[in-house]
Fold Vacuolar protein sorting-associated protein 35B.
Amino acid sequence: MMLSGDEDEEKWLAEGIAGVQHNAFYMHRALDSNNLREALKYSAQMLSELRTSKLSPHKYYELYMRAFDELRKLEMFFKDESRHGVLIIDLYELVQHAGNILPRLYLLCTVGSVYIKSKEAPAKEVLKDLVEMCRGVQHPIRGLFLRSYLAQVSRDKLPDIGSEYERDAETVMDAVEFVLQNFTEMNKLWVRMQHQGPGRVREKREKERNELRDLVGKNLHVLSQIEGVDLEMYKENVLPRVLEQVVNCKDELAQYYLMDCIIQVFPDEYHLQTLETLLGACPQLQPTVDIKTVLSRLMDRLSNYAVSSADVLPEFLQVEAFAKLSNAIGKVIDAQVDMPIVGAISLYVSLLTFTLRVHPDRLDYVDQVLGACVKKLSSAPKLEDSRATKQVVALLSAPLDKYNDIVTALTLSNYPRVMDHLDDGTNKVMAMVIIQSIMKNSTCISTAEKVEVLFELIKGLIKDLDGAAQDELDEEDFKEEQNSVARLIHMLYNDDSEEMLKIICTVRKHIMTGGPKRLPFTVPPLVFSALRLVRQLQNQDGDVAGEEEPATPKKIFQLLNQTIETLLSVPSPEMALRLYLQCAEAANDCDLEPVAYEFFTQAFMLYEEEIADSKAQVTAIHLIIGTLQRISVFGVENRDTLTHKATGYSARLLKKPDQCRAVYACSHLFWVDDQDGIKDGERVLLCLKRALRIANAAQQMANVARGSSGPVVLFVEILNKYLYFFEKGNTQITASAIQSLIELITSEMQSESTTLDPAANAFFASTKRYIEFQKKKGGAMGEKYDPINV
């Protein structure tokens, strides 16, 4: 029966463990009887199981750990000279007679550990001997585990400062030398694994090497724990030696892992003071090494170190950390010509993150990073790689997140240049991020110059870029984008009227390029922003000293007239009409009768020529009537002209009920409650009588068309208008006229031909209850209502 590779390995591992356990049993028996000769014999046989070449690193580790546990017990026996009766120096010689080199060296390391502890020989001599002897095993896996064992048994016996094995000032260097030599040999063995066996199992070998990397990395950890390794020694001896090994091994996996180890195990302060040396090795690494991750981790550690205490910040300035990192990143990108654009940009993102954390006040550094990114991006006008695009968005978002203030970002000259390299879709996404940042932080953009830069940044939302077809965009997304731009316009403000007018002109210049789909969203906020300025100016004297022509309401209204006209090309006449009426009301507040009249003229022309839909006409005429009623600036002639127009248009609406409601609404044009307001009772009555005639005609038309009278709700509405003017003191509205109208409505409701309308019935009932309430209230109003019977 054929076994698979995994099953074979399990079988070989089981055999190896059985061999270890079998020989360990006899070794224990020899230890119990203090029989050194037998103990050495069976321990050597037990360790011979580690000579296998059939196991993967993972399985070999299991076997090694079984043997390691047994060696601990053997070491305890060697320590007790009274049990075996042999001097430790003789024992050190004795174990070297083992037949095979691998068991011999494991036993030698075990006895060597005891030898150092006995202090009968200098630790440095024994360690030097052991590290040299281990060269006898050159098989990668066996050699790595042997040297790992040596590192394990010796790590607490190094001649370090403060250690019981320290003899003189030079011993620390001996300890460092021992660890470095062991590290160098282990790295060579680890790298050699890559070049063993056929090329087709390359992936498997890489996986096995990954499993063994911590054995090599532990040496660097031991180095970092040696007390005597101060900054000076690290700078002069340790780091150069380690980096030499890293660079010379020319192995992608080893270089990446060991650079990462150096960054992780040694103190941040050491990295900062040896930045030039560490970064100098980066361009010398293999082109395939993921250097961007290594450098990103280094910058993360340094930035965390910087923010941990304000006291360390001067050190960063002293060693010129930013300049060195920036220079190193440039060299790495130049050296690795095949580095994808996403790799280069991610390096700049890490450098920018470092800069914003360590030097947030140095905007020149931030702009320098963006400038370097622009230089790299210039080789590809538009990004194709989606991952690279995400990195650019991260790069542009970082200053916004840090400063919470788009105004700061607007001072960075390279910021818009980076945005120019985004595709249209991402450009819009970034523009939305910028607007959301402004909204979230309630940032007020207060100068025309900053507004200019801002609108250049968000131009992807303001107009179609490179003739891109707008139809490709989802309608909902488009509305959301344009509503965001509209909200942004309200965030542009300055108390100084001159500057505010410049801002309005700058915004107008940009939004006018937006095309017909965008104007209905962007023109209204601009108009209201300008009207806010008008109201700010209405109480100021127009003659302001200054070189430029001052901002005056009249000047702003001229600008508004031209702006609103653009909506006619969309076409969006209903929106334009509303805005004309808003401007007319603002002109009224400024006491500018000709301007207000002009806006009303424009509104009426729109109504006549552009608004054809009957529902839109109803809405428009009510807006006109409502606005006109609030205007007080007109003289008699102008007011008569406009009210005549309004009543005329009301009577010409398509549907009779709409005509009726518009005509009775016109009654308010002749009765304004203000102290100086117009109070023409006769014309009010004429409007209401005309409305009654139209309501009556509507009833008759309904009777002819459907064989039944229409609802009487129009009469009830007119009754309420009668009551309103009756209470306001219009002498033309008499109690007898109201009484007649009540009787008419009652008669109509009782008629068999009238269509049942519960809402109208309820409305009429409420109106009668109101009359009763006023009668019972007494006083002057009660007396007025007294003649009316309901």
User: Anything to note?
Assistant: DSSP finds 39 helices and no strands in the chain. The longest helix spans residues 5-32. Confidence is low (pLDDT under 50) at residues 542-547.
